[in-house]
Amino acid sequence: MDAQFLVSLTIILVTFALYIGIAIYNTAKQTSDFYVAGRGIPPIFNGMAIGADWMSAASFIGLAGTIMLLGYDGLAYIMGWTGGYLLLTFLLAPQLRKYGRYTVPEFIGDRYNSHTARVIAAICTIIISFTYSIGQLSGSGVVIGRLFEIDAKIGTLIGVVLIAFYSAFGGMKGITWTQVAQYIILIIAYIIPVIFMSLQITGNPAPWLSYGKIVEEMGALDRELGISEYFAPFTNGTKWQFLALMFTLIAGTAGLPHVIVRFYTVSTMKAARWSGAWALLFIGLLYLSAPAYAAFSRFILMTQVAGQKLSELPAWTASWVNTGKLQIADANGDGILQWSELIISNDIVVMATPEIANLGLFVIGLVAAGAMAAALSTAGGLMIAISSSFAHDIYYRVLKPNASEKNRLSVARWSIVVATVLAGLVALNPPGAITQIVAWAFALASGTFFPALLIGVWWKRSNTYGVISGMLAGLGVTLAYIFLAKYGGITILGIIDTGAGVFGATAAILTNVIVSLSTKPPSIKAQEEVLNLRYPEQMTYKDGEVWMD
């Protein structure tokens, strides 16, 4: 065993012990603990948990790599993922918290007084969360595969075992406090390397201010090599694809069931709003750092790896070639590695950069621990979403309303184990890169839940027939476009599979409105409940004045 392996393994095992200890200490003993953490999480800690839940393997592992490979076009991911939180925080989260349910399908089922709508929403939750979890398990495979220098598929299987145990044990209560610890670990692990790289390359410890100079230098290198300039817009796709992807991620963020449920874990509407504000701050720390990470990584690869003799390449290249995520070929037979002969997966850029930049054993181990924290935290939230949709919305609310508390918890835990294993099997041979798979989940959320929730909260005339037909239309159109674009090569205005949500959301909104207006309106009581959602949770009298909570 080499020193790097021992250091990385030690750091990861210490963090795992911390997560398991927190989960055991906060074991869910009743269903309210398992699904909504007893609704007692303070906003600042809920913001951290949201940040960890949100900054998945796609953000930690894949985002900087995606920007490195796509340049300007990769910024759609940052603008979409952060913009969506503003939409969620101001338009949906407080209102959904006020309704006081456990899950998104439960809100839809009760808002429209329909078991059919509830079951369709639960199925949509399972599809979205399952798709998203494939990306997380694939990400954990990349980390574990590199750590043990084994195939990423074996690493994925190890990740399945860890996540199944970790998620099923503590429920939402255990996961929330574990995610607070995971956020602290992952953000430190992400920011330290980019600060070191900034110091190493520019002499400035503030990468957010210094990477612009490096981008300018890369422009000259790009022209010298005769390749598309890094900061030139729309070189990897059309303007319409950029806009469609950004919309898909914004709307998908506002409709992701495992993120929305985090706002149910606080006590009031006001706390829900503050949770969103804190989450945006914590998420922004990583997303503002990702472009700098991408620029520094690309600059180091272009200046210190490309152009070297194949026989003199650094040792880290052999390690990553073994994982299957890096390919090196001497296409022209000159013994020199050209930029065009280096094929690096965007999923390994963050993981490999500490080695590429020679940042030391501790930083390499810290990044590995941070990447595992990102994958585990999001996977835990996704598994709770799948579990609650099946065990609470389908099993308890529809199939067996007289089930005991003990029986409901048992079904919830077993559904997590089954879902994790099935997602892991698909992740052994993932259908795309991590960020691409995650974008599909966002497209599905933007085509189903975003229209259903937006209209459900802000339009009292929407009825049962409208929401059911809208969700089915959005789901069908989104899935059809993803498959046609990816496997059939059929696109509209150059919009590829990752921008499918724009078509799904349009279909869902139009269908919901047209069908609702063509059928009987909801009851007066239901319409009054919708109007009531838009106002503060309660009004109290204090010192002779009216105070709003």
Automatic annotation (TrEMBL):
GO terms for molecular function: transmembrane transporter activity. Its main location: membrane. It comes from the Bacteria. The chain crosses the membrane at residues 6-28, 49-69, 75-94, 115-134, 154-171, 183-201, 240-264, 276-296, 359-390, 411-431, 437-458, 465-484, 490-515. Keywords: Membrane, Transmembrane, Transmembrane helix, Transport. It is found in: Membrane. It is a multi-pass membrane protein. GO terms for cellular component: plasma membrane. InterPro entries: Na/Glc_symporter_sf, Na/solute_symporter, Na/solute_symporter_VC_2705, Sodium:Solute_Symporter. NCBIfam families: Na_symport_lg, sss. Belongs to the sodium:solute symporter (SSF) (TC 2.A.21) family. This is Cation acetate symporter. It comes from Metabacillus litoralis.
